[in-house]
Specification:
The protein has 387 residues and is an alpha+beta fold. Helix content is 32%, strand content 24%. The strands form four sheets. A four-stranded mixed sheet has the order 1-8-9-10. Strands 6-3-2-11 form a four-stranded mixed sheet, with helices on one face. It has a three-stranded antiparallel sheet with strand order 7-12-13. Helix 4 crosses helix 5.
Length: 387
């Protein structure tokens, strides 16, 4: 456990941020396919810029979907519904460049006679958990996501109807001896109508977004920056291009722990970038939830076409109540680690991914987020001899 006083910062972005538009389009396509073909293979990348959405990648499926229709539906739902916002679901051009997955990959991944389903690619994935919040997530990323969700909520309900879809938050939390004690800095930047005055915008964002979310974390020394440039009228893809997979830290743990580098959105569950990252979170969360450690990070690593992970690593950062070797033994005994077993245990062949594509994949109280279940804590406690 890190001693002394230190500060840690995490950020989040709203669903209207250009990169998050792309994540939601990619996962919207995955969900549309999974509704018809749960055994499909999908690896979809999206790019958006002024007036354009480009979808590319590899899809192998027995069904047909209308990709431009899905793209426009996602963009409309997000809130780009007026040409004045610089990006409009009705008028953008949608281009597709999609082909089938290489049969060379299928040779290693598909299960066959006497052969288990292998990993869809090589790679390393991390899961993390900490007992500093009820979500068993780091506080900075929890608050950052709640702020961007609140920005979207106040925009959509009309409470702050002058806000646009594009926005960001950044939160710096002060820690003392490993425990969060206060919010040191809160940053909000949100697209807005040119008809609203900056004084009004800043006052109302503080009143209706920051205060309800941050509450007692704010004190007299907390520094607050709201649209600090003084103007954010042009936003979204009209101001900044977006690409799938560019918010992997906001998608995961806000910079705590490590990251293997693989993005989640647009990938079906045979891709261990996604499924093994979910399993690693599930393992770490249950270890912390069982009281075996205050913090836990789990790494899983795979090679293409091979079912067993090439390595399993656990790190409790010195907070473990039992030796890490014992925790490792519990992991390999009680958690499924082969790709096919992960998919089955977490029930991943379902159209559940669109809602993961904004506001984080972890720490969410949603029954479809099966990797957030705490259903192994009793057996872990029992075998560890923990209280």
């Amino acid at each position: 456990m890190k001693k002394g006083r230190y500060f840690f910062t995490s950020e989040s972005v709203t669903e209207g941020h250009p990169d998050k538009i792309c994540d939601q389009v990619s996962d919207g396509i995955l969900d549309a396919i999974y509704e018809k073909d749960p055994n499909a293979r999908v690896a979809v990348e999206t790019l958006v810029t002024t007036g354009l959405c480009l979808v590319a990648g590899e899809i192998t499926t027995a069904c047909y979907i209308e990709i431009p229709e899905i793209v426009r539906g996602v963009i409309k739902r997000i809130g780009y519904d007026n040409p004045a916002k610089g990006f409009d679901w009705k008028s953008i051009s949608v281009l597709t460049a999609v082909h089938s997955q290489s049969p060379d990959i299928a040779l290693g991944v598909d299960a066959g006679s006497g052969k288990e389903q292998g990993a869809g690619d090589q790679g390393l994935m991390f899961g993390y958990a900490t007992n500093e919040t009820k979500e068993l997530m780091p506080l900075p990323i929890v608050i950052a996501h709640k702020l961007t969700m609140k920005l979207a909520q106040t925009r959509k309900t009309g409470k702050l109807g002058y806000l646009g879809p594009d926005g960001k938050s950044q939160v710096t939390i002060e820690y003392l001896d490993g425990k969060p004690i206060r919010a040191d800095t809160i940053v909000i930047a949100n697209q807005h109508s040119d008809k609203v005055g900056m004084d009004k915008l800043r006052r109302e964002i503080f009143e209706y977004v920051i205060k309800p979310v941050c509450g007692k974390l704010i004190d007299k020394k907390t520094k607050i920056f709201i649209n600090s440039t003084g103007r954010f009228v042009l936003g979204g893809p009209a101001a900044d291009s977006g690409v799938t997979g560019r918010k992997i830290i906001a998608d995961s743990y806000g910079g705590f722990g490590h990251h293997g580098g693989g993005a989640f959105s647009g990938k079906d569950c045979t891709k261990v970038d996604r499924s093994a990252a979910y399993m690693a979170r599930y393992i770490a969360k249950n270890i912390v939830g069982a009281g075996l450690a205050d913090r836990c990070e789990v790494q899983l690593a795979y090679t293409i076409g091979v079912a067993e992970p090439v390595s399993v690593f656990v790190n409790t950062y010195g907070t473990g109540k039992i030796p890490e070797e014992k925790i490792y033994d519990l992991i390999v005994k009680h958690f499924p680690l082969k790709p096919a077993e992960i998919i089955k245990h977490l029930n991943l062949r379902r159209p559940i991914y669109s809602k993961t594509a904004a506001y984080g994949h972890f720490g969410r109280n949603d029954p479809d987020f099966t990797w957030e279940r705490l259903d192994k804590i009793e057996i872990l406690r029992g075998e560890a001899g923990a209280d």
